Amino acid sequence: MIQWPPRLTLANTPTPLTRLENLSRQFDGLTIWIKRDELTGTEVSGNKIRKLEFSIAEARAQDCDTLITCGGVQSNHCRTTAILGVRLGLKVHLILRGERPQLAEGNLLMDYLSGAEITYLPQRDWHEHQDLAHKIQSDYSAAGHKAFFIPVGASDEIGLWGYIAACEELKKDFARLQMVPEYIVVATGSGGTQGGLILGAELFGLSSQIVAFNVSDDAAYFEAKIRQDVTLWMQRYKQHVDMKKLKITTVEGYIGPGYGVAGPEIFETIREVASSDGIFLDPVYTGKAFHGMLSELRKGDAGQLAGARNVLFIHTGGLFGVFPQQQNFVFD
After folding, report:
1. Residue 276 is among the residues annotated as catalytic for this protein
2. Angle between helices 286-298 and 264-277 (to 10 degrees)
3. How high is the pLDDT of residue 326?
């Protein structure tokens, strides 16, 4: 039996699970489904809010009044943390990777509007971001505050709970729809959503295979990261799973030029999905993963999603990441 840790009720759940009627017609005998986690609330915060329900609950349990977290300049996670912090009466300090841009737009604009304190750390120094976070933590302590550090994407043993809980929700979805997909597809950047789904599928007996498309790093990184997080999760919460049963599948080849940088094929996929089914993806996470999924499905039995009759895509959000890159869309 699962012993749940402290949790705040912040997300609008359960989120809808619906069929992509028009896009599915491109394939013979295949239905593409979508879990609308971009509708979790807090200004379309997507998957981040599920994890933060547990991370911020832990911060409160430790009597912290400040949250420190980090990510890219257009981090969905940082923006979500900033908004939740102000709603819950917590100060938020963000460490953002890169230089301060001349114009604050997209997620960064919302960070500023939410009143977050922001420190920029150049890309060349990013390997020191945790050391900087601990220094800032010490500075707050010296000023009489207690700060809680949340890692990139809230992807650690605490954040895993977000998508463990989502698997309990998925199990109910599948029972209602009388459908169990062969594959559950998701974008992976810091590994927390992917890891939570893999662990949750094992705990709730879901037969679906979790397939992630990486938008940064490589498959070896996610293999090591997820196994480390699950090990820490078992130690921290006195839970047990058979690590040998956890299948970590990360499909490479769709990162493009790099993290946060997308090629024209990604923007075309975003436009295609929006114009066919009214679903809006982003160029950093969901656009790349969805493009990867369609590409593998079109390979048929030669692809990574061979034999699929039902495929579920987890829409993890990221809408505000579209606007800083709007110049990359091409319209006839």
Report:
1. no
2. 90
3. 77
| CATH for 48-154, options being 3.30.1330.10, 3.40.50.1100, 3.20.20.70, 3.40.50.300 | 3.40.50.1100
Angle CA(221)–CA(122)–CA(153) in degrees, nearest 5? Answer: 45
Q: Compute the average pLDDT of residues 127-153.
A: 97
pTM over 0.90: yes
From the list 45, 55, 75, 114, the catalytic residue is 75
Q: Which CATH number fits domain 17-46+156-328: 2.40.50.100, 3.40.50.1100, 3.40.50.2300, 3.20.20.150?
A: 3.40.50.1100
pLDDT tens digits, one per residue of 253-290: 999 999 888 999 999 999 999 999 999 999 999 999 99
C-alpha 321: how far from chain center = 13
Closest-CA residue to 230 (of 245, 214, 218): 245
Distances (CA, A) of 327 to 264, 298, 312, 319: 11, 28, 30, 15
Structure tokens at 125: 């120094």
